[in-house]
Amino acid sequence: MKTIACALLAFVYTLFRSRLTLQLEIIALRHQLTVYQRTTQRPRINPGDRIFWSWLSRHWSGWRNALVIVQTRTVIGWQRKRFRNHWAKLSKHGRPGRPPVSKEIKALIRKMSEANVGWGSPRIVGELHKLGIDVAKSTVEKYRVQSRKPSSPTWKAFLKNHVRDLVSIDFLVVPTVTNKVSSWWSWPIIVAG
Questions:
Q1: Beta-carbon count within 10 A of 121 CB
Q2: Domain that includes residue 112, residue range
Q3: 66 and 28 in contact (C-beta within 8 Å)?
Q4: 19 contacts: CB under 8 Å, gap ≥ 6
Q5: Total number of domains in the chain
Q6: What angle do helix axes 19-38 and 47-59 make, rounded to 10 degrees?
Q7: Pair (159, 138) in one structural domain
Q8: Could you read off the pLDDT of 23-55 as tens digits, one per residue?
Q9: Which ranges in 144-192 belong to alpha helices (H)?
Q10: How far apart are CA 22 and CA 62, in angstroms?
Q11: 15, 25, 65, 101: least CB-packed within 10 angstroms?
Q12: Is the pTM of this model over 0.70?
C-alpha cells in the first residue's frame, strides 16, 4: 500500500514539473540503468560516464535526486579532478620560466653597460624599454658587464686616505657632590699619520 501511495505522489508531482526537467531525469535514470546492465556485480564507471554526470550536474539542478549509482560528492570530486587536470595540461605547454633572451639583446646590454659605467640595471632597463625591448631587471643584471673595482671605497681605504684629518674629542658628564651635573670637554686629540 505504501509503494502505491509513493507512486501516486510521484505521478502528481510530475504533472507540475517542466517537460525539460522530466526529459533530463529520464536520461539520467536510463544512463544509470545501462551502467548496471553492462556490469555484472558492481557498477563500473567509465570516463564517459564521469563526463556525462559532470555535465549533467552543471546544467540540471535536480541531478542529485536522480543519482543512484554513486554519491553526489563523488560527482563533485570528478568535476574538481577534471578542472585540475585541465589547468595542469594547459600549464605544461611550453618551457617554464621566462623566454630566452636573444644574442643581439645580450650584446646590446653588455655594450650599454660598458659605454655607461655609471648606469645601473634600472636605467638600462628603461633605455631598452624606450627602444621597444622589454627585459627584466634581473636579466640586465645577469648579462651586463660587472666592474672589477668596487663602485665606492671601502672603510679601510677611507681611513687610510683621511687618517691625517681625523680628530677625536671626548665629552664627559661628571656629577658633583651637590648632585649638579657639569660637563667637561677634553682637549682634542689629533691623530697624526
A1: 19
A2: 103-143
A3: yes
A4: none
A5: 3
A6: 160
A7: no
A8: 777 777 777 777 766 776 777 777 787 777 777
A9: 155-162
A10: 10
A11: 15
A12: no
